[in-house]
Write a structure and sequence with these properties.
single chain, 52 residues, alpha+beta, Arc Repressor Mutant, subunit A, 2 helices, 42% helix, globular
């Protein structure tokens, strides 16, 4: 999961947990993985993660 999240981050630069939904991940699962591998910030009701 970490590798896939990093691939999405590399391609997009920034992602939300919802961006990982096509992988079949629930939003909370995606958020947990993204917290491990990227820097997050809150924006208008949702969280955005960017590459470290």
């Amino acid at each position: 999961r970490r590798e896939l999240a990093l691939l999405f981050l590399e391609a997009a630069g920034e992602v939300t947990a919802a961006d990982l939904r096509p992988l079949g991940w629930r939003r909370q699962e995606a958020a947990a993985v993204l917290d491990e591998v990227a820097d997050g910030r809150d924006e208008e009701g949702f969280r955005i993660w960017a590459r470290r």
